[in-house]
Amino acid sequence: MVFVYFCTLFVSGCGADFTGGSNLEQDTILNIFSPPDPAEAARWAADPYDPDKRQRGMLLLSNAPWGGDPVYLRFYRLAMDDEDPTVRAVACEAVGRHGLTSDAVLLAESLTDDSPIVRRAAAEALQRIHNPAVVEPLIRAASPRFETDSETRAAAAGALGQYADAQVVQVLISGLLDQRLLVNQAALSSLTILTGQDFAYDAGAWLQWTSETDDLFAGRGTYVYPVYQRKPKFWEYIVPWVETPNETASMPVGMTRGTAPSPEGE
Fold first, then answer.
1. What is the pLDDT of residues 177-198, one digit of tens each?
2. Nearest to 119 by CA among 85, 155, 160, 152
3. Domain map (residue ranges) of the chain
4. 75 dihedral zone (left: phi>0; alpha: psi -120 to 50; beta)
5. What is the pTM of this model?
6. 39 Cβ partners below 8 Å, 6+ apart?
């Protein structure tokens, strides 16, 4: 079984065994002060019967300092095909956090998942990985014609802010007319980053500017992906191998400050 195989790899990779750990079924004080060790987290992530354990275990592993090691990344990729949507969503998040440029194509496939939480996680993950091959899937995901979930549309609009492409600009202008404010805000943010202009939510003004401007990206800013910040929970102070999942905003993997526009945008 794939999960069992990778569970074994986890243990060899972190130098732990399967003898310790806490009981996930009982949220007791003992569990809080006897948190799962890496081996136990690996067992949860590979549990073939309990999707709650799988997603919780994978969260622990992907947030660990060594959670981006190749053996774990291979597991996250496989878990993107899990039967449970919450597990698939966590797997997308993990691939987005630790993946390579080539993983963007794999994440783009999840933009058509049956579950909106998976599609949303994939779109958010694509904010962290730069690959022009995913522009078209992101454009579809940002459109209410193809995507019914507004949070997914907003995340896709946010990811499109990486790509200096004339077609992307037109799609983002359309996003200003979306019925959901969340999408409007994401589209405006991406437009401002790509062009250096700010006509607020006035789609007509944006269209007029694009028709009168030869180089849409002359004032282009630097794209950085958004990150989640929170204060550490008290138990995160006492678990030596778990870190608060706070990050510093940065450019996506595969993107440099001199990343050139795609041919369509020239």
1. 999 999 999 999 999 999 999 9
2. 152
3. 1-99, 132-266
4. alpha
5. 0.80
6. 10, 11, 14, 16, 17, 18, 19, 20, 21
